[in-house]
Amino acid sequence: MNTENEKNKDWRGKLHEIIYEANTFAGKAFDVGLLIAIFASILVVMLDSIDSYHQKYGTLFSVIEWTFTGLFTVEYILRLVVIKHPLNYVKSPLGIVDLLALIPSYLSIVFIGSQSLLALRALRLMRIFRIFKLGRFLSEMKFLTVAISGSLRKISIFMLTVLTLVVILGSVMYLVENKENGFSSIPESIYWAIVTITTVGYGDISPVTPMGKFVASFMMLIGYAIIAVPTGIITTEMAAAARNKGFHHQVCPGCGREGHDQDAKFCKYCATKL
Amino acid sequence: MNTENEKNKDWRGKLHEIIYEANTFAGKAFDVGLLIAIFASILVVMLDSIDSYHQKYGTLFSVIEWTFTGLFTVEYILRLVVIKHPLNYVKSPLGIVDLLALIPSYLSIVFIGSQSLLALRALRLMRIFRIFKLGRFLSEMKFLTVAISGSLRKISIFMLTVLTLVVILGSVMYLVENKENGFSSIPESIYWAIVTITTVGYGDISPVTPMGKFVASFMMLIGYAIIAVPTGIITTEMAAAARNKGFHHQVCPGCGREGHDQDAKFCKYCATKL
Amino acid sequence: MNTENEKNKDWRGKLHEIIYEANTFAGKAFDVGLLIAIFASILVVMLDSIDSYHQKYGTLFSVIEWTFTGLFTVEYILRLVVIKHPLNYVKSPLGIVDLLALIPSYLSIVFIGSQSLLALRALRLMRIFRIFKLGRFLSEMKFLTVAISGSLRKISIFMLTVLTLVVILGSVMYLVENKENGFSSIPESIYWAIVTITTVGYGDISPVTPMGKFVASFMMLIGYAIIAVPTGIITTEMAAAARNKGFHHQVCPGCGREGHDQDAKFCKYCATKL
Amino acid sequence: MNTENEKNKDWRGKLHEIIYEANTFAGKAFDVGLLIAIFASILVVMLDSIDSYHQKYGTLFSVIEWTFTGLFTVEYILRLVVIKHPLNYVKSPLGIVDLLALIPSYLSIVFIGSQSLLALRALRLMRIFRIFKLGRFLSEMKFLTVAISGSLRKISIFMLTVLTLVVILGSVMYLVENKENGFSSIPESIYWAIVTITTVGYGDISPVTPMGKFVASFMMLIGYAIIAVPTGIITTEMAAAARNKGFHHQVCPGCGREGHDQDAKFCKYCATKL
């Protein structure tokens, strides 16, 4: 019984390595295979959403979708089985996404029309970032993550400023422009302010009165200037990350000074061997 | 009477601490509570501006608005009472905003329609930046303020250049394009030039003649290049601010001044060994 | 006669100082006065270009315009008289602009309709940059000029790349999209490509066929990425300009090392008095 | 026969120098002449694509186009003849482009309508970058190439993130918005998501329902923030390239290697005093 238990463990351990890790060849193959399946399933959902294709190949798409749903269900169950604490996986972001990608298919049996929720399967594309955990992209990925997470607090202050700004400017525009010109309510005007300040500019709503155009011009110039702020934040953070990457580990044993390049063999200040 | 005066002082002092400061628990609670009230009141004004909601819940919204107006009036009076120099508060930007947020409600009794000015209450959202004065956002907020205020003069030169450019290019476009294509006057053409150079591009006015399209293409490429300037300005300033931030821990033991480089061995002001 | 000549010189010299220089009070006053006159004349031209105003106040505007034309003519003649080499002024950019601002008024006597060329008077706004030559903006102005002129060659390579790109992508789009959807000729398609790659996006021409939308999506993502290039160029150049500004003049007389802050009194490496 | 062979070699060698190199006067002249011919041929194709010109000057354009096709055919054959390994040229990017520019003319004899493929001749504009290989632009060109190729891996991670994002957000929008409002299929919604997140914003498709506008606002603000990422990447890389550029004059007298910091006293590779 002990050996059987061990065998069992071994069997689960191997599967765990294949499904959750990416160090072994089987693990990599599983990850790549999964990604291809995700891509294919999303492609089918995409094509099925086009009316003309749906009418021609609707049944075929339906069969393929159910096949993928079956595969992904098996994968989900395997993930639950081979992990020690299944609840941790279920509650993790990727676990929630994996479940979200399965539910719509089963829901569509009961509720007709909920099949369109299959579009949520696109969320599984987030697994693509697992590829970057392999090989040469690792350090670049880490660099970007460090730089962006380091600037998150500043970016959130910026975003809150922009949000306050669009609420105020949207309200002002609601007062200035006529209701007939698309600025029919404050939320609508705020939507317009966001479209304007981010320089998207659909043109579905645009100022018509001279006063409205004047206020809008003012807003655009503000938007033009403040777009520089997030760029400045991230660039500064990246420069800091790049500097740290190159330097901070090497301290000269002779004079104790830092700042040596990564390929330096001797201290540039006192010529001690590093 | 002396004790009563002291008590009175004490009572006013405590209220001052609650309303104007944010160091104590009561002060923080007041600030957060006020922000929630501001958010709620703005939400009501927003919803009330949507026609269908206004027709259904107009009376309810009216009651809530008057309740908030009452609360904010009490808050405004308290702010006047507990401060030593009430006029300083009245003349301060936040004081003006607080008053602007109150007036429309009272005006609406006399002038029907002025209620839409309630949208100005959105200006009170500026109080949100008081939150950042608390805790961990303080240094980030300070960093952004230093970098932006440090680049204000350069940004204003840039803005003046852009304004000159849009006046010139708008005038040229007025000459080049037909009046029927939306370029009906020079101010209108300048509005178009701003929409174009800031890359917003509503499309409400767009060049129609080949010559107009050629000039517009030229303008767009210019706009594409010069958007780099404010970004460059702010990034450089932020990099400088980030560098300074790195310095500020070193205090000279001789003269007590800060701001030394990280590789400095002697104080640059008094030559004391660091 | 000698003294008269001297007087004459003196008289011309003084006027030269007032008109061309900005060091004396009179010189500054002349510059500011001239700018106000330019602003006012442009404002009149602007208002006159609005049909409803033109019909009401057309005659008044005409009188004001002729007054300004008279003033500017006197100014132009004075500039010719008080300068040693009048041809140099006539051939200088500002001289050409000053003349261009005068011609339309006189032309309008002969050719009816050429009055709209008055819009060219906006070019005279370029004189506004003379203000920055005064006082505190001088160093900021110089900083921006150095950084931008230093990056001109790189920016021009970038612009040529963008131009090549829009010609190629415009041609591809002309092949891909139907002529009925606005892509009626290659120049038209190139115009669309510029509108797209600069993220202006009027929407006067937009892809309709699936293939066209695919190619356009590709172009937009390219445009999204390459907008980073001019920003990078100018930021790097500005950082270099900022670094040079702070440092490069001070060399320690004791140890010969550079890199001292501008407010440093002692060398940070060897404590020698700077 | 030996001398004839040598003569032959010499003749081919000289032509090779003229056609492929740009060091001699003849080589430069050939490059410039070729560029002018390319420009002229593209201009003719452009003008021919405009209907009104085509009807008037169609025959003339046809003659000029065939002349250029003849010239470029001769050039292509010469390039094949004078090079040692013709296949290498045929398979090189420029070789493929050169062939692509020739085929449409000859195809148009057999298939009517394929003449519009002549637009592909615009691809030959890529030869313009050969100019930068001459003279003063060389180092700037190298600088930009180093910086951009150094950031390619990071940019590709960013692009993949953006692509994942637009697929997810496009799918969400397909669920949220009505099919009648332009979000008729998932690919269509993804196209809209790209138009929005790159801030192009044609307005051919724009959200109509309140929920759709809310989701779109969210997307625009995301797009506003993440545009900072490629800029940050390229700026950091350029700053690094600029720093390296500053180093390259210091060559170690001991080992002859470059790349030392400006404050280095000893070679970091062999500890020789600099």
UniProtKB/TrEMBL annotation, chains A, B, C, D:
Gene Ontology CC entries for this record: voltage-gated potassium channel complex
UniProt keyword Acetylation present: no
Record keywords, A-Z: Ion channel, Ion transport, Membrane, Potassium, Potassium channel, Potassium transport, Transmembrane, Transmembrane helix, Transport, Voltage-gated channel
Top-level taxon of the source organism: Bacteria
Keyword Ligase appears in the UniProt entry: no
Localization in the cell: Membrane
Coiled coil: none
Protein name (database record): Voltage-gated potassium channel
Annotated organism of origin: Pedobacter caeni
